[in-house]
Design brief:
Elements lengths: L1 E6 L9 E7 L6 E2 L4 E6 L4 E5 L4 E6 L5 E4 L3 E7 L21 E2 L27 H7 L3 H9 L18 H9 L12 H6 L37 H16 L2 E9 L1 H18 L6 H14 L5 E4 L2 E4 L5 E3 L1 E3 L2 E3 L2 E2 L7 H16 L13 E4 L19 E5 L3 E8 L5 E16 L5 H16 L8
Parallel strand pairs: 13-17, 17-18
Antiparallel strand pairs: 1-8, 2-4, 2-7, 3-6, 4-5, 6-8, 7-9, 10-20, 11-12, 13-16, 14-15, 18-20, 19-20
């Protein structure tokens, strides 16, 4: 018999830790190689992790809800085939629960909970030592928080492995008033290195210097049910709040006549679905028109880095996918290079794998523009929040038949039944002026209303 380590994988270069959200197998269960055995949540993606070898689950080291560093052993598999962990796997880190934090509190926060003492000053380690490298190699989230609040990570004593400063350590330091606002804006190069969909912490909801006060924490009443947020819900919460605080949100709405697109879709739908085995919806047409618009109006496909503007030369369109447990935004990379068929196939594949928790971190990062489709639930239009560090997000409303006044060739007005939708655009007014945003929407509207039938797919 041989015992194989099951480790917390590194789901992306910038990921330093992961939360084991659910075990799919229990001790004593037999598993096949590459069979999913547990689920994890990171600040990038929820995913199922496969078994490194066939065998029997012999021991579970990390329980559901624990957050552990990448490389930590989470379980052991016993196999009589002498299997070993796949080459290239990171070395296992100690699995002491002292360095593991639950994904979310099991009770509401109280004033007493925030009165914990701030971490003491870290003992000095030799420059370039292993201890110093581990402590300063904090997650991107922690480094961003520290920079925003003017805290030097090397000056704190962390509770992580080898003194690594964790999010919890930094929150304690901020609560004790150690934050000092930083005046310098990040350079373009620094911002470019930050991963897409970088969430912020709840403490970063405060404006520097205490200019904005945090809302009081509500207390549960008798009969209330208190449930901890899931890892994904907590990250969505943080990301939405920091986006509203970062970008000057403005929303514009256009009505689009999709009658022509509806006719093209109806005419080619059966043959397309028979040939490709995929459903042909309205969304690929909208994505195609939006990408054409981004090429004409480059400030919509950009990012703000302090006083610099990064004009993206890749057209990577994120599509918001609603899940039963939250929201995720897989990205169609190089959408400008894809035909309508290519967009459809990629879109359906990403959405299916998002719901099955089969996406990799690379497939939910690197977006330059986002489209969300609340219309599938009947919403006429919405004012979506920008997906940082992007500067715009398009909302697609419900597609329905409406009576419209149409002017005929003879100049006479008639009432006709048309297939229409409302299309909204939330944009960052720091960079995008209202005139540019409306010109973009007008261009997308025209593209859809004059969509070419020949060679459409």
């Amino acid at each position: 018999m041989a015992r194989v380590d099951v480790i917390m994988p590194q789901m992306g270069e910038s990921i330093a830790e992961g939360t084991l959200s659910r075990w799919l197998k229990k001790v004593g269960d037999e598993v096949k190689r590459d069979e999913p055995i547990f689920e994890i949540s990171t600040d990038k993606v929820d995913a199922e992790i496969p078994a490194p070898s066939a065998g029997t689950i012999a021991e579970v080291v990390v329980t559901e809800g624990q957050t552990v560093p990448v490389g930590s052993i989470v379980a052991y598999i016993e196999t009589d085939k002498g299997a070993v962990v796949a080459a290239g796997a990171p070395a296992a880190a100690p699995t002491s629960t002292a360095s593991s934090a639950p994904a979310a509190p099991t009770a509401p926060t109280t004033p007493a909970a925030t009165a914990m003492a701030a971490p003491a000053a870290a003992p000095t380690a030799p420059a370039g030592s292993l201890e110093e490298r581990l402590r300063t190699k904090s997650s991107p989230l922690v480094r961003k928080m520290a920079a925003e609040h003017g805290i030097e990570i090397t000056g704190l004593s962390g509770s992580g492995i080898a003194g690594r400063v964790t999010k919890r350590d930094l929150l304690q330091a901020i609560e004790q008033g150690e934050a000092r606002p930083t005046a310098a804006a990040p350079s373009a190069a620094q911002t470019a290195r930050q991963p897409t969909m970088q969430p912020a912490t709840r403490s970063s909801m405060h404006a520097p210097g205490g200019a904005e006060h945090q809302a009081p924490v509500p207390e549960p009443w008798p009969g209330d049910v208190v449930e901890p947020m899931s890892k994904m819900r907590a990250l969505i919460s943080d990301h939405m709040v920091v986006s509203r605080r970062t970008s000057a949100h403005v929303t514009s709405v256009f009505e689009v006549d999709l009658t022509r697109v509806a006719r093209i879709r109806a005419k080619q739908r059966a043959a397309f679905e028979a040939q490709n085995g995929q459903k042909l919806t309205f969304l690929p047409f909208i994505i195609k028109a939006a990408v054409d618009g981004l090429r004409q109006f480059p400030t919509l496909n950009a990012a703000v880095a302090g006083t610099d503007v990064i004009l993206r030369k890749q057209y990577n369109v994120g599509i918001a996918v609603a899940l039963e447990w939250g929201l995720i935004v897989p990205v169609i990379k190089h959408a400008d290079r894809l035909s309508l068929t290519g967009i459809t196939m990629t879109l359906n594949d990403l959405a299916a794998r998002a719901r099955a928790k089969k996406l990799s971190p690379e497939e939910v990062g690197g977006g330059t523009f986002t489209i969300t489709n609340p219309g599938v639930f009947g919403s006429l239009f919405g004012t979506p929040i920008i997906n940082q560090p992007q500067v715009a997000i398009m909302g697609v409303g419900a597609i329905e038949k409406r009576p419209k006044v149409i002017t005929g060739a003879d100049g006479e007005d008639t009432i006709a039944i048309r297939t229409c939708m409302y299309m909204s655009l939330s944009f960052d007014h720091r960079l995008v002026d209202g005139a540019v945003a409306d010109e973009f929407l007008a261009y997308v509207k025209k593209q859809l209303e004059t969509f070419p039938e020949a060679g459409a797919l």
